[in-house]
């Protein structure tokens, strides 16, 4: 996965014409990047950051696993050579590694740990005055979302760039499609159907010497307190496209279902393997979300918006971006590397002194996934206000490899309570 992510950067680096000497406390001659979370996505994001600007170096890295850190640095060095300038003093291990990266003299940080840690890391990065690339999702619970919104507000006050990992927002075919929707090409949007029906993902067999906590941290995806469940961690991309189609209006409520049909063994923790959620908006508009992670099943990854004047489709699986109805249109332009564009635009904004702040929409899109999970887990309708004000906090506040990881039963609709 890491190698594929490193090889995917195809766009040319941003040309800097008139860099400012200083912005938000950084030296514009060389931008130092810190990577917090050295997994596949974090390593890919670091590779794209190093390609986004001619004068960027990787200065510090942090993770809880030495093998992940070593693999990441080895792969990055193969691709970017002397742009990887991480000496032994700037390789930080442990649950407090993010603090050490932030204190190491970096200008920009990449936050790519499991989502449970994102709100705390984001707030710390903003308080430290660093520009931020924040991978999705931004939280696993409502208290986390509220902290993200607080951090985003502070980032705006401090003129810090905060860019999200909702990558389809940087994909030119989808930008063109959703711009057409927002310009009225299909009229008033009545219904948005979106899917994320895929196969399953990785699982790491337990090795001798691993504690219970290490096993859970290495398989974080399968524990709701660490990942948010697959609706929040992966299918959130489709939910975000639904929100985009609605002009990022907030829904009134969500109701739905979900469960475990195939991924039922203990190695899959406590998350579901399928969801079906209905989001209700003002004036009767509805969003329908379907996601599934089951092998040997029909796949679908798309967003389809139906309006009073036509239909718009952004189909990831088939690479189709078109509008039918009164105003027919089909995207025929270049399909960019959206991952690279994220970082190109972030570093261009830093150089120009024109900060980007995507904090509000990235937090709201994250909460859309969380409220959908709440609705499925409890079996009840959850309003937006209930979801935003929820007091349910997932996971502990302190961590170690010797800790006893939380034991959470698989949610049972009708029995699992909302809080």
How would you describe this protein?
With 419 residues, this protein is an alpha/beta fold. The protein folds into 2 domains: 31-168, Rossmann fold (3-Layer(aba) Sandwich), CATH 3.40.50.720; 171-336 and 359-389, Dihydrodipicolinate Reductase, domain 2 (2-Layer Sandwich), CATH 3.30.360. Helices cover 34% and strands 21% of the residues. It has 14 helices and 17 strands. The chain has helices spanning 2-7, 40-51, 66-80, 97-102, 118-127, 142-157, 172-182, 212-218, 224-227, 230-233, 236-245, 338-352, 359-378, 384-388, and strands at residues 22-23, 26-27, 31-36, 56-63, 91-93, 108-111, 131-134, 162-164, 189-198, 253-259, 274-280, 286-293, 300-307, 310-315, 320-325, 329-330, 382-383. Strands 16-15-14-13-9-12-11-10-17 form a 9-stranded mixed sheet. A 6-stranded parallel sheet has the order 5-4-3-6-7-8, sandwiched between helices. The chain has a two-stranded antiparallel sheet with strand order 1-2. Residues 1-25 have low confidence and may be disordered.
Give Rg in angstroms: 21 Å
CATH level 4 superfamily of the largest domain: Dihydrodipicolinate Reductase, domain 2
- Could you say which structural class the secondary elements and strand pairing correspond to? alpha/beta
CATH C-level category of the largest domain: Alpha Beta
User: What's the mean pLDDT score?
Assistant: 93
Largest sheet: 9 strands, mixed
As laid out across the biggest beta sheet, the strand order is 16-15-14-13-9-12-11-10-17
Contiguous helical run count: 14
CATH architectural designation of the largest domain:
2-Layer Sandwich
